[in-house]
Amino acid sequence: xxxxxxxxxxxxxxxxxxxxxxxxxxxxxxxxxxxxxxxxxxxxxxxxxxxxxxxxxxxxxxxxxxxxxxxxxxxxxxxxxxxxxxxxxxxxxxxxxxxxxxxxxxxxxxxxxxxxxxxxxxxxxxxxxxxxxxxxxxxxxxxxxxxxxxxxxxxxxxxxxxxxxxxxxxxxxxxxxxxxxxxxxxxxxxxxxxxxxxxxxxxxxxxxxxxxxxxxxxxxxxxxxxxxxxxxxxxxxxxxxxxxxxxxxxxxxxxxxxxxxxxxxxxxxxxxxxxxxxxxxxxxxxxxxxxxxxxxxxxxxxxxxxxxxxxxxxxxxxxxxxxxxxxxxxxxxxxxxxxxxxxxxxxxxxxxxxxxxxxxxxxxxxxxxxxxxxxxxxxxxxxxxxxxxxxxxxxxxxxxxxxxxxxxxxxxxxxxxxxxxxxxxxxxxxxxxxxxxxxxxxxxxxxxxxxxxxxxxxxxxxxxxxxxxxxxxxxxxxxxxxxxxxxxxxxxxxxxxxxxxxxxxxxxxx
Length: 510
Hints:
2 domains; acyltransferase; L-glutamate N-acetyltransferase activity, acting on acetyl-L-ornithine as donor; Ubiquitin-like (UB roll); 7-stranded mixed β-sheet; ArgJ_beta_C; single chain; alpha+beta; globular; amino-acid biosynthesis
């Protein structure tokens, strides 16, 4: 294949070496089509909170023991949760057909901190996104939604800067976000192997400041020298997403789908200003960003449906401080390079449901890393609400408990003040009447020992305060609420509210 046409511009010429390396090793270009999917091998859901699994995920070994207050807590979050091939239970396998990099371009003052990430595919991808519902939508959110609409759910690249959110920046902000997209599109169009382009954009950092756009555009051009498909390239990419994060949030997963091995890689970031409420592109309705790239083949509308389902049960089910960002974005790119036939919710419903469930579970794993890294957080708390008439109602109750400042302060102080939990349940307004005589509440330790019942059908138990203190002293615990009104349930993940959180956010801009 010819990497660059004879009439290439100087910018395209600068991109040529990377394109030549990339496309010479790539499979023929395949544009997402409506091909019929092959029958899927039966597999269970991916390992994580939703289902037990035979899928291979490389969650760091230390994460399994995170609930222990002993040796695990003596190690830093970065030591326990950063993906390290030397200690991971399975070696990372990155999806075919993608390249990634991360570098310092000058958004951040500290040259040792990466601030620009680039991901590209060797062929057009089905693309989907879920975006913040904050009224002050950041410029990169607007541009990414426009790209998805204009390209009918097809894209090939993603560019991310950290250190400046490009939010509430007016017309200049929109111009800068479009320039970032156009710059990477110029890279992608430099190859004669495909006419497919489409670059999504993300930004994170301080709100109300303009981007140093010249530095970013130069950085995108420079990125071509470091694009790669190995662990180092993806690790640098993940580090370039970080702001107040204490560790890069990078994970991979392999599954069997349609008789083929399908790979996923996920990156997200976030530690503060975390209470996402994202939806699919549409009319308006410190930041959480996420991207999942996969070599699965799935038609764009089905990918959007799967992502919307996944985000509601993962990224929309976490809270650090209750603040929804102007920039929250999660995107998925699926390029079909695994060789499987295209999946469709209508034509191959069984394979679609398997993919959707695997995506949901992987997204939940990534989302939980954000709570683990919550600014100043010392507790990782699962809030489970069962016995509701609807999923939406259970989700609302779990969200209300998770965002209660009084509950979060009690968790930090290791105070078994379960009355605060009940108070939050009572004012949650889930869309149905709460019957206090049917509500039960328990603390559930994560070491396999029995739960500690606090309230049963509205009647308080004689609580063993010493046992309650033991459970609350652990890093990981679960608050379980039974409403006694139906068969639906939902899960939220949250953390405590510490003195350190205040210190971090009081000095954020300085």
